[in-house]
Amino acid sequence: MTLFSLIVALLIEQLRPLSVERFVQAPLKAFARFLEDRFNDGEARHGAVAWWVAILSVCFASALVYFLLWNIHFVLALAFNVVVLYLTMGFRHVSHYFTDIQLALRMGELPRARQLISEWRGRSHDESSSSEVARLAIEEALIASHRNVFGVIFWFILLPGPSGALLYRLARFFEQEWGCRSGGLDFGDFGEFSRKACAALDWLPVRLSAAAFSIVGDFEDGVYCWRAQAGQWKDKASGILLSSGGGALGVRLGMPIFESGEVVERPEMGIGDDADADFMQSTIGLVWRTLVLVFLVLALLSVARMGW
């Protein structure tokens, strides 16, 4: 049932991508503001209380609904799983940037590619070369594939019903909404706990995604870059994904870039050639092979469970 739910949700998402901003982000931001108004006094412990209130209420409610539907008919529970996965998982709502950037680079439309990568990352890249644009797009794709697909799958498998998927996506949302917000008198340390909680929940999924990238790509280079380079990146989780992904693809990521009119120094991730549109196509293949590997492992586990 778990594997079937994942396949159906991904198929629906591929055929009809969800408007994330309208149906997911807007309600969650309203929910976050509601919690801030009632709990935020600038202290980390009250941020922790708000986080637990949000997570436990939503996850408990989803698990309760799932079990009630299961007792009525398993098809209803299956449909509930698919709906929640459709809302929490998917790569299509960001992949249009990746596809359009790849097409622009192939057509020699560098200004268009620069505009798209700037919109995707929320920072100006008007002076970036075609290789820098391709490199940044690959980096965003590797991180997004983990956060929007593989991390969600991990927690969906681990917890009952769709509560694991909701747990991960909510933790990721509050980390971005609260944890990444600067302090100040009106916010203080309210987001500190959400940042730490998301890092703890993502500790194992990040490493499983990196291992999967290496397995379906160049294993030796993927593991080597992971071990040698990941710790140099500012965000350790992103460093693990970028170093293993870059090594598995045989492409150089990271490195200095032009951003908002300035040169931003970054360590080198991965190994091999400079990024280009061809490596962007290889990135798509890497992500899909990783997804097939995940489904194959789930299928084998299902068969083994049936045998027991």
Your description of this structure?
This protein has helices at 2-15, 20-39, 44-72, 74-88, 92-106, 110-121, 130-158, 163-179, 192-201, 203-216, 219-229, 236-249, 277-307; strands spanning 252-254, 257-259, 262-264, 268-270. The protein is mostly helical and 308 residues long. The two termini are 17 Å apart. The mean pLDDT is 90.
Provide the fold topology.
Elements: H1 2-15, H2 20-39, H3 44-72, H4 74-88, H5 92-106, H6 110-121, H7 130-158, H8 163-179, H9 192-201, H10 203-216, H11 219-229, H12 236-249, E1 252-254, E2 257-259, E3 262-264, E4 268-270, H13 277-307
Antiparallel strand pairs: 1-4, 2-3
Shape: globular
Spatial order of the strands forming the largest sheet:
1-4
**Number of E-type strands:** 4
- Report the sheet with the most strands, covering strand number, pairing sense and barrel closure: 2 strands, antiparallel
Low-confidence stretches: none
- Structural class label: mainly alpha
Portion in helices: over 70%
Helices and strands, in order, run as HHHHHHHHHHHHEEEEH
Strand content: under 5%
The Cα radius of gyration reads 20 Å
| Average pLDDT rating | 90
What's the N-to-C terminus distance?
17 Å
- Count of helical regions: 13
